[in-house]
Structures are given as C-alpha cells and as structure tokens.
C-alpha cells in the first residue's frame, strides 16, 4: 500500500526516500514564486531544500502563487499534502527519491491574495516561471506589446490586474506607500536576457497608467538575469505510478527530472538573497555568455532534433538520439553553425558541453518526449534559433543547417509525418502556421512571409535561398536523405 504524502507521513516513508531533516514549522517566507510547475519544483525548490538541509537560510522559504486556472488545481493538489513534493532523479545508474519541504504555503489563485502576499515585507524576492511566451513581447518588434488585451486591461485597472506583471506593480505601489523596500524580481524562464525582458514588461505596463511610478520602478527595482537548466518532463500516470510502485508514496503531483542542474545568476539582490552559492548556484557579474551557451546549444539542440524526429515517427527523445542520423545531424549543426556564434567563457569547453548535452538527451530514464520539444514552435523558434541565424548571416557564415532546421519545422507544420500519420496541433498559432507551410510547397518563401514569427528576417535573400533548397530536398528526397546530405 502506498502512503499518502503528508507532513505526518514523513517518518513512515521508506528508508531509501530522503526527506526534510529541518523543522518546516520554523521556516519563514522570503520568496514568492509565480508558476509552481514541474521545473520550478525540480530546480529552485530543490536548491532551497538543499540549503535548508544544510542548516542555512530558513528565512527564505517559498510561497507559491499563480494566475491561471491550472495553478488553482496545482494548489489544491499540493495543499492536500502539506505543500510537499516527491522528486525522483532519473539517473541511468539508479533512481533516487526525495521529498522537498522548501514550500510552506501557496496563496489562493486570486489577484488580491497574490498582491497582498507580495506586499508582505518578509518577501524579498518575487520569482516566476511563466513560460517563454508569457512576457507580452511583440514578435514583430521584439519589444513590449502594450496592445495585448491583458496589458490594456491592467493599464485601465491597476488596482484589479489579471497579469502577474500587474500584480507585481500593485504590490510595489503598496510597498512604496508603506515605506517598505521593493522586492527583487527574478525570472526563471528560458529567455535571452530574461531579467531585461521582465523589467521591460513591468516598466512598460507601469508607463501606460503612471509614468512617474514607472520611473520609480526603473530606478529602484532590480531584475537580475539568470540561466536555468534541468530537463524536467511533464507528470503523467507514468510518473505517478513510478513514485507509488518504486517508492511507496501516493503523490498527486510528483516531479521527475534528470540528475543534472545548473543555475547561473547575476548577483544583484539589494534586499538580500539565500546563500545558494553553498549548494551549487553560480553567481556572476554578467550571465549573458552562460545564457547564450545554454539557449543555443541545449534549447537550439532540442529544436534541431524535434521536428526531424517527429517527422520520422519517434516519440521519446532517447529513442531519437539512438537514431544515428538524428544524432549525427545534431552534432553537425551544433559544431558547424551554432557553437561558432558563441564567445569564449573562461574555464568552459563548448565541445565538452555538447558532449554533456548529447548524453543528457540520450538518457532513457527521463522519458522526455518529442511532442514536448515540438510544443509552441512559434514562440520558441524566435528565441532559440532565429538569433543564432541572424548572427550567422551577419558574420557571413554558412546557414545551411539552420535553414534546414526551419525547413523541418515548416514540413512538420503541414500536419503529417512522413508515414502519413496526423500530427496533433500543439501551437496557439497552429492554423496560421499550417496555412503558410502548405503554401510553401509551391512557394517556399510563403513560410518565411509569416512576419509574426520571422519579422524582417523573412525578407533576407540568403535565408530564402537556403530555406527553399532545404524544403525542396525534404519534399523530394525525404528527411533521412536530407539529413545525411547535410552531415556529409
């Protein structure tokens, strides 16, 4: 019989399950995190649990918050188990489990409750994991999208916002009025210069309704950038069954992840921060080069294998990596075109990092899926592929592989695999993408004419020619032959 996860049940769990050795009742909050999904719990919550286990930082416990209906469901699941989470590390050498106790509360999914929690002087950091597409960025201009319905609403109703950024501003105004120092705002999403993007959205929204307050925010609120990394699959019945059958725990919201984590942060926290450097977090003056390394080699690598693997019928990432042609394509595009766009980092070997990425992608225990990698391409391609492509074009280097990656995405957007199986829609812009992809069969430039995704890059003649060649090869010769030709 599996034991339902609660605080009272911790002493009765199997001896091979690690659990909090610290007094959770003595923890006090220091961080409010918006978006309590799997990645947050496998990453930030894990680092904080590790810190608390060392006897340090007990005034930096987590409070959860959310803005979407799904967040309310997560809150309900976690509340029933005293905010505890079972985390299983999927190490090929052997699985391990631990119960994380670093979260001590989760406010009601309600703007007023979230604003009140953010206004608490004990909260010195407000962090968020809200996906790459959650920052109200105009894809055409790469700037703040002031015309989005949520931003228009929050500008008109600053005391009753519906976005996390409106809630942040409402709480900052409360703190300003009460003479409480502003919290640090920390993005934990996979975005280039995520701190800068977050600051631009917060101040941009403030400027819509109170320019003077926007100036105060720009002068007083700090938004450090950071690089986060840990492959964390979605939780399904597979993961819940694993936790129940292997470790004897009934957990409604377990998390599984790879046994690798990385967190590099700019050390800018005026109101203080937990001593995370003692548990493996790296603090630097400027995170840009580390960030680009991860975004281009790892996230760009995921994009490179995603669509080729989907078209060939692979479901699991490790199965795709066992396909010699997929693995060779990944290494070729990385070494020929992606890594050459990166500036050196002292003490870091990009070749070694690529070897690590290949090993991580190949881990059969993770069970990461190709459909997850293909998700939301219209938001991910502009962040993980197009900046690399722009740099290659500016340097005059070859772009054949990056153009092929775009062609594979285009072919995927047609909606069928090479075997003719239907591909389920997994992008909010699916209908538009499919229309452009089908039109590209006769006119390859039609796909690049989607300015919402490509902006002015779609008008580049060099890209248009390379993309047309790659797409024609996919249609005429198929995926495998096209990959082999590029690698060769």
From TrEMBL:
EC numbers, comma separated: 1.1.1.-
Keyword annotations of the record: Oxidoreductase
Alphabetical list of Pfam families matching this protein: Mannitol_dh, Mannitol_dh_C
First-tier enzyme category under EC: oxidoreductase
Superkingdom of origin organism: Bacteria
Domain Mannitol dehydrogenase N-terminal: 30-277
UniProt GO molecular function: oxidoreductase activity
InterPro entries in alphabetical order: 6-PGluconate_DH-like_C_sf, 6PGD_dom2, Mannitol_DH, Mannitol_DH/Oxidoreductase, Mannitol_DH_C, Mannitol_DH_N, NAD(P)-bd_dom_sf
Signal peptide residue numbers: none
Domain spans labelled Mannitol dehydrogenase C-terminal: 286-474
PANTHER family: MANNITOL DEHYDROGENASE 2-RELATED, MANNITOL DEHYDROGENASE DSF1-RELATED
Protein name, as recorded: Mannitol dehydrogenase family protein
Species name: Paracoccus rhizosphaerae
Lineage of origin: Bacteria, Pseudomonadati, Pseudomonadota, Alphaproteobacteria, Rhodobacterales
